[in-house]
């Protein structure tokens, strides 16, 4: 099958093409070129593609094209987080421009009323997180027998969060077997098994190998003493090009503590994690998107679902323990062909996890030794001058880097009494 190179080649209606044009989309992405014809033909599809590649358009454009306007609930999308569900709903509304198609987000943390009304009203598209949807099923409100398209977005993340029993419970409430589309950034064994169980003779589409990043994202790792992490981040935020920065911490307490340090340094920031009320999280994301704050500190709640253009840097303040988490975190920058830089802070205690991460990613990350912050002490290594422009090959911008240090070399440094080293 020849892949169309223009949206007009998919057999979409004029209304849908006008909505695509209003979005500013000029040519389909790779996942869209491969998946849209398959979905239009009625095939189940398993799509493997990193975030920011146009997956929502790949499944929602053909689903909207084939549903019957005014025919009640026909498209059910399951997402791991409220943020991702809202993003999918926003994209759906944009692609449904010029029609009477209605969509609603069903998720926890907000009032039941509007969500109950959506089922009673017969909205054609429901984008839901599993927990609240099952709650409404148990209340007798969410009736799913009319669903024609079941879409699982970010399936790997849903399984990571323990949602498999809820997914299976939702499926049991469906009527006639729907066309099933499963999209995931990675394909671990658990996702592969789920795909085989939920789909029938699916077409498998993979546009990027597992663990890869977008072209234009450079990767760098700083060795740092734990107590110097805030100071290193503040130092880097003073470098050219650090304009809109997303920082990931492993814990909610760590996120709040870092936010306080940034406030003390008079760096505008906000924070999102699961203890923050939904309205506070939404406001924080809106402020970050609008450029009202430079830094958004987040736990993994934000590693997927945030589709914000212009993020210059993503900082792994704590080393991710899973390569999928690393890919999703760093995928927040370099969106839609832009460039960006992914920075990871590595302490001496992180060396084992960092070696494992590199092994699983099947690549080495550039290491940077900064004598003022490095856990190995005060030995001065050669530094690169800051690069003002980033090439497509992915070298960084606005960062000072030094001689490449492999993890074994860093570990070796720890075995010596280096002057200035803290114990």
List the topology elements.
Elements: H1 14-22, H2 30-40, E1 45-48, H3 55-66, E2 75-78, H4 82-95, E3 103-106, H5 113-121, E4 125-128, H6 130-138, E5 149-152, H7 155-160, H8 164-172, E6 179-184, H9 189-198, E7 203-206, E8 217-223, H10 229-237, E9 245-248, H11 252-264, E10 269-272, H12 278-289, E11 295-298, E12 313-316, H13 323-330, E13 340-346, H14 351-361, E14 366-368, H15 407-414
Parallel strand pairs: 1-6, 1-7, 2-4, 2-5, 3-4, 5-6, 8-13, 8-14, 9-11, 9-12, 10-11, 12-13
Strand content: 5-15%
How many helices? The count is: 15
Categorize the overall geometry. globular
* Helical fraction: 25-40%
Low-confidence stretches: 378-423
Helix/strand structural class: alpha/beta
Q: What features would you highlight for this structure?
A:
single chain, 423 residues, alpha/beta, 7-stranded parallel beta sheet, 15 helices, globular, disordered C terminus
How would you characterize the overall build of this protein?
The protein is of the alpha/beta class. The protein has helices spanning 14-22, 30-40, 55-66, 82-95, 113-121, 130-138, 155-160, 164-172, 189-198, 229-237, 252-264, 278-289, 323-330, 351-361, 407-414; strands at residues 45-48, 75-78, 103-106, 125-128, 149-152, 179-184, 203-206, 217-223, 245-248, 269-272, 295-298, 313-316, 340-346, 366-368. The strands form 2 sheets. The protein has a 7-stranded parallel beta sheet with strand order 3-4-2-5-6-1-7, with helices on both faces. The chain has a 7-stranded parallel beta sheet with strand order 10-11-9-12-13-8-14, with helices on both faces. Helix 12 links the parallel strand 10 (269-272) and strand 11. Helix 2 runs parallel beside helix 3, helix 3 packs across helix 4 and helix 6 (130-138) crosses helix 8. The N and C termini lie far apart (63 Å).
């Amino acid at each position: 099958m020849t892949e169309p190179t223009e949206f007009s080649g998919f057999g979409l209606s004029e209304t849908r093409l006008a909505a695509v044009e209003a979005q500013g989309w000029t040519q389909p992405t790779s996942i869209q070129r491969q998946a849209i014809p398959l979905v239009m033909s009625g095939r189940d599809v398993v799509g493997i593609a990193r975030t920011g590649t146009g997956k929502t358009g790949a499944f929602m454009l053909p689903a909207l094209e084939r549903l019957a306007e005014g025919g009640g609930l026909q498209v059910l999308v399951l997402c791991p987080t409220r943020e991702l569900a809202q993003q999918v709903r926003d994209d759906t509304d944009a692609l449904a421009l010029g029609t009477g198609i209605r969509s609603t987000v069903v998720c926890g943390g907000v009032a039941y009323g509007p969500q109950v009304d959506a089922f009673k009203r017969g909205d054609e598209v429901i984008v839901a997180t599993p927990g609240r949807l099952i709650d409404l099923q148990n209340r007798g409100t969410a009736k799913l027998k009319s669903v024609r398209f079941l879409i699982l977005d970010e399936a790997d993340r849903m399984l990571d969060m323990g949602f498999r029993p809820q997914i299976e419970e939702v499926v049991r409430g469906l009527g006639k077997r729907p066309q099933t589309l499963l999209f995931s950034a990675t394909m671990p064994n658990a996702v592969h098994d789920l795909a085989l169980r939920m789909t029938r003779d699916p077409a498998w589409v993979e546009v990027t190998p597992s663990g890869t990043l977008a072209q234009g994202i450079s990767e760098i790792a700083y060795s740092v003493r734990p107590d110097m992490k805030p100071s290193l981040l503040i130092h880097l935020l003073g470098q050219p090009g650090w304009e809109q920065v997303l920082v990931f911490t492993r814990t909610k307490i760590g996120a709040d503590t870092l936010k306080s340090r940034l406030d003390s340094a008079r760096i505008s920031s906000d924070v999102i994690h699961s203890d923050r009320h939904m309205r506070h999280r939404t406001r924080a994301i809106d402020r970050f998107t609008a450029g009202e704050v430079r830094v958004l500190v987040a736990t993994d709640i934000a590693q997927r679902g945030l589709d914000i253009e212009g993020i210059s840097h993503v900082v792994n303040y704590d080393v991710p323990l899973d390569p999928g988490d690393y890919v999703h975190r760093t995928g927040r920058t370099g969106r839609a062909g832009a460039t960006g830089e992914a920075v990871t802070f590595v302490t001496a205690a992180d060396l084992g996890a960092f070696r494992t991460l590199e092994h699983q990613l099947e690549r080495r990350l550039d290491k940077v030794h900064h004598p003022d912050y490095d856990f190995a002490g005060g030995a001065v290594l050669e530094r690169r001058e800051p690069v003002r422009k980033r090439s497509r090959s992915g070298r960084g911008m606005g960062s000072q880097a030094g001689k490449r240090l492999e993890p074994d070399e860093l570990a070796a440094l720890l075995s010596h009494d280096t002057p200035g080293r803290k114990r």
